[in-house]
User: Which sequence fits this backbone?
């Protein structure tokens, strides 16, 4: 597995599904800033319909819509619809995630902790999502809301250092030294 961070504000995303699984996935995508998101549900629950708003299409995605997507999430979608959409998306070159199905997924979503622009992801490679969630909850105790300001502070310093012509290796050393002096990290 290679952990990466996708800027969902810059790519086309489809979510197709039903029920609580689709609602949870939609909340995750919204939190991640998915701005070019289309949601497909044949019979959406009221909570999903409300959360999706005008992005909701009350049907399954068509082949041409799937072909335009770069990332496709399937959550709570019954068979044979999930298999058909996953195959179409794969054939079109989209990354596919089928909820709770590692075999048909190109990637999985880790347990995520956000503190402003700071994102910490915990993954078990899809083998035990419950354990990843437990570890994320433990990290929440150590990485509180103060990290929003800390990130802003060090990011401003970094921009100044870069503007002054500092090399990346030097910036990494200065960042570590700054965090150490501030006592931000556990030993």
Assistant:
């Amino acid at each position: 597995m290679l952990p990466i961070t996708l800027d969902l504000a810059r790519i086309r995303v489809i979510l197709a599904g039903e029920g609580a699984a689709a609602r949870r996935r939609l909340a995750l995508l919204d939190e991640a800033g998915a701005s070019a998101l289309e949601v497909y549900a044949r019979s959406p629950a009221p909570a999903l319909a409300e959360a999706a708003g005008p992005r909701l299409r009350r049907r399954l995605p068509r082949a041409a819509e799937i072909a335009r997507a770069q990332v496709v999430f399937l959550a709570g979608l019954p068979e044979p619809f999930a298999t058909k959409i996953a195959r179409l998306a794969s054939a079109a070159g989209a990354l596919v995630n089928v909820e709770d199905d590692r075999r048909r997924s190109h990637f999985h979503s880790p347990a995520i902790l956000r503190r402003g622009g700071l994102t910490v992801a915990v993954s078990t490679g899809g083998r035990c999502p419950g354990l990843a969630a437990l570890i994320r909850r433990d990290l929440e105790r150590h990485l509180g809301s103060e990290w929003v300001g800390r990130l802003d502070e060090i990011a401003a310093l970094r921009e100044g250092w870069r503007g002054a012509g500092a090399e990346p290796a030097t910036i990494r050393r200065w960042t570590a030294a700054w965090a150490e002096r501030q006592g931000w990290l556990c030993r």
Remarks:
- Residues 146-163 form the longest helix (18 residues).
- The chain has three domains: 12-109, 110-143, 146-182.
- The chain has a mean pLDDT of 94.
- The two ends are 28 Å apart (CA to CA).
